[in-house]
Every structure is written in C-alpha cells, then in structure tokens.
Amino acid sequence: MISEFPLFCFTTLAGLAAGAYAVNAFFPAGKDSKRAWLFPLACMVLLGVGLIGLPLHLGRPERMFIALTHPSAMIAQEAYWSMAFGIVLLADTILLKVKGSTPRALRIAGAIFGVVLTAVMGNAYFVSLAIPVWSSFATFPFFILGDIAMGVTMVALFDYLVAKDCEDRLGKSSNFLLAEAVSALVAALAIAVEGFQFSGAGLSVVPFVVAAVVALAAAGIAFAARMGKVSDQISAWGCFAALFVAVAIARYAFYAACVL
After folding, report:
1. Helices (H), strands (E): how many in the chain?
2. What are the tens digits of pLDDT across the range 206-228?
3. Distance between CA 25 and CA 107 in Å, rounded?
4. CA 132, CA 209: separation in Å to the nearest integer?
5. What's the whole-number mean pLDDT along residues 40-59?
6. Which of 17, 47, 152, 237 has the smallest number of CB atoms closer than 10 Å to its CB?
7. In 3D, which of 158, 144, 105, 190 has the Cα closest to residue 18?
C-alpha cells in the first residue's frame, strides 16, 4: 500500500462528492422525488469518510489541530474548504427533507465550494517541491476534470435509483447523456496528459493508459445510451463504475510517485 493512501482516499471520495454536487446544481438528480434529500446526504457521507484521510496522513491525528492553526498550509486549506462545503451539504439535506426544496443560491454556493475544493486539492500537489512531476499545470485538470466527470456519473446513477419511473429523468435526456459522454472524454484526456508528464520524468505511464481507456469506455457507454443502444440500468451503473475505477487507478498511480 502506498504511504499516501489516506490522501488518495480523501481526494477520491471528497472529490467525488464535490464534483457530484457541482453537477447537481445544474442537473438536479431526482428533483421530483421525495427522496431527493438523499443526494446531499450521500455527498456528505463521502466527504466525511474522505476527510478521515487528512488526520491519518499526519501519522498522529491530533496533529491536525496544529495544522488548522496554519491557514497557509495546504492540508489546512483542504480542511477549511471541506468544512464550508460540508455545511452547505448539511443545510441542503435538512431543507430538502423538511421543506422539500432548497434555494438555488445555496446549491450554487455549494457548487462553487466544491469546485474550489477540487482546485485546492490540485494546488496542494502543484506547489509540492518534494515530487517534481506533481509540479505541473496538468495536475489541476487531472483533479478538477476527473472529479467533475465522476460527479456527472454519480448524478446519473442517483437519478436512476430514485426517479427511474419518471419520464423526464436525466437518463432519458439527450443533452445530459451528451454531457456525460463529453465529460468522460475530457477526463480521459486529462489522465492521458498527466501520464505524459510522468513518462517525461521516466515514470511508468501504463496505469494512466489503462485509466484513460477505462474512462473512454465510460464515454462509449454514454454515447450508446444516447443512441438507445444500451439500457438505462447499464448506462447508469456502467458509466459510474468505469469513471470511478478510471480515476482511482490514475490517482493511485499519481500518489505512487512519492515512493519511486
């Protein structure tokens, strides 16, 4: 297991939550369902589980309190933006459960916090001096676009699960399926570019190639669903699984650089 495994868990799970909520602000999942409140709750759980990785990364969890007293530290910035994002998720969950709706401004704020969080994740490695290959502008799209692509598939999956009987759900929207396919293609490109950076540094590009191919498979499934060639179930589950696996493989390889 890589030494940076706690950070791998944080950026993957919290990044998924951030990307999904950002997408949900513009393509609401299960908007006509009484169970729509489960979406921000799921994002909050992913964020919470991912956040466990921050103190674990420090070896001694109590050191996290010391880190928080240094706002300029990247780990503190990740924590503070996660807190702000988490507050929005909590508010959204409560309002949806109690009132059945939330102000659009709240969701937009949450989307902004989520995207900024993914950018802060990327910046944490861009400013790293210990691993030269991380200090590349390719690191930003690698994190941001990967998280958004995963987020699109999570929104599609949740919408399928809670609103499968609705005629106007996202899985039947040609525009949404096109957005899902394009986001997967862009994520595959970001992964490939990051792999090119690693190759230039003499590191293995194989995991990034595998990840990019898996991401392309997700794009293929979305395009097939748009043309009516695959079922809604295959599209929802297949795209989510493929994008999550693709990002996980690429991100694991990214962190493995610290032990090479």
Report:
1. 11, 0
2. 999 999 999 999 999 999 999 98
3. 5
4. 21
5. 90
6. 237
7. 144
